[in-house]
Specification:
There is one protein chain. The protein has one domain. The model has no long low-confidence stretch (mean pLDDT 94). The chain is built from four helices and no strands. By secondary structure, it is mostly helical. Helices cover 61% and strands 0% of the residues.
């Protein structure tokens, strides 16, 4: 299993606490994207999920 697929059952908070690269990525996102991801924090349990969710939200900006 790759690092991006490592699952954090505690959701976004656990992911960001345990994985500094995930935290740096999250903090680099626009505030509105961070807020939308935080609303679904329980569903974000891997770096890959975080990145996919953020990319989908950002794609709507085009």
């Amino acid at each position: 299993m790759s690092k991006k697929e490592q699952r954090y059952p505690g959701g976004l908070g656990e992911l960001l606490s345990a994985d500094m690269s995930a935290k740096e990525y999250f903090m680099s996102l626009p505030d509105y994207v961070q807020g939308m991801i935080q609303q679904r924090a329980d569903n974000v349990q891997t770096c890959a999920q975080l990145e996919n969710y953020a990319e989908n939200l950002l794609a709507g900006d085009d």
